[in-house]
Specification:
Length: 73
Amino acid sequence: MDRLKPVIETLFRAKQQRRKKLVALPFPEKVRAVIRMQQMAAPILLARGKSVRVWELGLVQDGRLSSGARQDN
């Protein structure tokens, strides 16, 4: 088990660094990441008979929601 400890510590450090990187991303980039995950998950969910709706990338432009998106205040 002691041999795994350095490997696990390295993995946790990398995970922490990735989270810091993701937190620093601007909002439109975070939305794009969510859309990419939706696109990756869609074929699996469709194969399971689930209803799938992937967001449209065109809704996020220049760091703001475009007029096609609803923005609740």
